[in-house]
TrEMBL record:
Keywords: Cytoplasm, DNA-binding, Nucleus. This is HTH CENPB-type domain-containing protein. Residues 85-274 form the PXA domain. InterPro entries: Homeodomain-like_sf (IPR009057), HTH_CenpB_DNA-bd_dom (IPR006600), HTH_Psq (IPR007889), Phox_assoc (IPR003114), SortingNexin/PXDomain-PKLike (IPR051837).
Amino acid sequence: MSHLQSRPKLRSSVISHNSSRSTSIDSRSKTQSPILDSSHHISTESSTDRATFSFVRRTLCSQLGDKGRSACATIDEILPPLTSSNEVDLQLYAFIAIVVREYIQTWYQKITSDQVFVEELVNIFAHCTRALEQRLRKVDLESLLLDEIPELLETHIHAFHVSHLPLHRPPIEHDPRHIYHLLWPIPPLSPVPSDQQDVASRQQQVENESSYRQLLVQGALALLLPTEDLENNCLRSLVTEILSESILGSGIGEKASEPWILWEGITKIAVVAKSQISQTKTQGLMDQSVPSSNNSTCQESFKKGNLNLNVNYSVQKVFWLFLQYSFFVITAIHYLIITYTASSSQACRNKSRKKKLSEESHIDDPDLLLTHQVSKKPILDMKLWSCWAILLNLELRMPWLKAMLSMLQWAALTGPGKIGQTDGIIDKILSYIIHTHILTPTTLPTLLRNARSALFPNNLAAGLSKKPTEAECVAIRRRCAVSILELIPTGVRNVYFGLEWEDMVREVEEEVLCIFEDKFCNKHLLYGLVELILVRLMPELSVTKVSTRKESSSKRRTSTRRTLTDEQRRQICEYKRETPNMRQADIAAQFAIERSTVSKVLKNKEKHLANSTTVCNPPKRKKGKFQKLERTISNWILNEVDKGRNVTDDEIKRQACKFAELTNDPDSLIKCEDKNWLAKFNQRNSSETTRRHSEPNSRAKIISLH
């Protein structure tokens, strides 16, 4: 019955939890809280929009020769747009300004005073972010945020708890990092660092991690950079070094993997969520002020011992309770009706899309398309719910509640009506709530602002900001636990934990926040998260090597030619007129053509814009489709002859009609049914069939049309 015992308390390898030190830790956190609060206040002031804009303007605009701009100018007027949102651009430019100031200007200004390189970097970052935004629109954010990322976190929690379970009695010890790395192996993070590790092994691990980051960045740049920048080896190497070492290495690999950084980030998110919840409760508290005053008056009369007032107080209390609960029920029903009505107008999550059949069955003809239904996972069946259950230890604290919720989930997914399945009633309501409360335009700027204030306090890079001491880390973790508990309603918190306040804080620290106390384990989680997001944004990274992708893109650029219609030329000219600051390379990427084609079209801009008619040139019909069909039949005949069979004319004709039906080409079907075609086919292919069959070790290759 060992599996029914409560989860053992995990001991931190960095921060101890001895009972003898608990009082001293609490006292030290109280005495040092003003220091932390003051630094937090300075960081908050430096992360405001006005301070951020001044910092970006002071760091980047001076290099761009933009000193004479007005101080009231917006971010899109002084710098190229990164995305379609100015709020997101401001936060992204703050990250770029930190990287440029701390990692580029420190060595570039010693070489030359020319600032053109910084301008080129800003343009490259702008091109990459715009390309990423276009790819982000095609990503299923609901599945990514609610299913794949929680599954990654669930893997981290499971590996962390298993690796920290005591396997033997003292003095026999085990290394939790080795066990964690075996449960979640990431080759770039090997060999596993330890206290007894030699210098050579540590250096090898650092080199492996650096090579891994460079491979990720090189693969992403091969898909995002324009052609002329990708062929510039010097510029590509510098950008790769900046992104892999300055951003991924220093920002994520070193700074973001620190436990206190993650705790500070969770605290900031909890504070933002608490402020939003408090705003919604303000009106409710104002409405409850009148009955509370009446209750206080009645309580005073009750203390006087007046029986009549006591009866009046009871009747008045029942009356106000009835009004409160009636108001609550009516409000809940009204909210459900509005939510259901709004969710009914939501677009279906399952959408049919087309994929090239040549990508799946390797057919030479790329015009054959296969339409199929892509089924998405129901929101009720995503990993978010199981991840929360594991994180809160629901199976051990309240197993009956977990069983009841699992039964309700199963009934909604497989019961009558399947209301929890994709595009069901519950699925549409949950999707509507997610899009109106989580995936809002203000969510991403807030996350970026909190991430910047946590990674770069006061806009200082890693190593320049003061690293907290061990006692300050304890205070940060305690503040994080308190902020999490304050999000939970008081009644739910008391019923679920059933402990005093200090015990509840300690439980959250030891059971929830302890999973982020090891920097090496955090690296597995963060690198896995980065790799998951990159693969979802750029699926080519998971199927093609970087060198192969570069070769195929260069071949495609040199071999493919595209003929534009008059309407397409007019659209290019109108797009250039609407966005005059857009480069020709960006326009070429937008319309999937070469930059030289855009230059030729824009030379005759007046001519194309004068053609107001929207008549498109008739599409050219591809030639050679019936010749491919005949070649397929010839291969089939050779294959049958190799088997020792004699193929008759009726079989050839019947097989040709079958292949023609698979191609969905009525012209090919008519030609196959013609009597004269068979005689011409036999006369044209008899000599070639005899010659190919007489060659040694010759096996005919069949072009499969299935």
